[in-house]
Amino acid sequence: MYKAGLGTKNLVGHMINLGYVTYSVEGKEEYDMIIHNWYMFMLLAFAVFRLTRLIVFDKITEPFRSLFLDDVEVKGEDGTVTTYVKPKEGAIRGFFGELLSCYWCTGIWCTIFLFCLYWFYPTIASPLILVLAIAGVAAIIEAIVSKLVD
Length: 150
Description:
Number of strands: 4
Mean pLDDT: 82
Strand content: 15-25%
Distance between the termini: 57 Å
Radius of gyration: 20 Å
């Protein structure tokens, strides 16, 4: 029978046993890996990569990002215009603006989201993870081909 949680009851135990689930067999605690193989790990990695890029960079999510970020254009001495993103003012908008302007921060939250979705609702998560992973690999291949062609 599976227990709730990720292992032992203290914080250090959670950190050490992260990625394992505790279950009891005839009164003895046993551990089992949540991600059973490299295939699932790689699927999650590519899916997180694609979801993060979708949220942070892609044009299709620009209306969502504009709720939390402002574009600031700076004109250089040579006449070139560089556009920067700046988080909007306010506690909530500012927080999400900071989050969306940081690729690494958004990646962590995307990882947590996809992992929890996979953990609690694997039937829903599996097709989503597969689609995002395939799109992520395709994006990487496209970037490599573009570099080789240019």
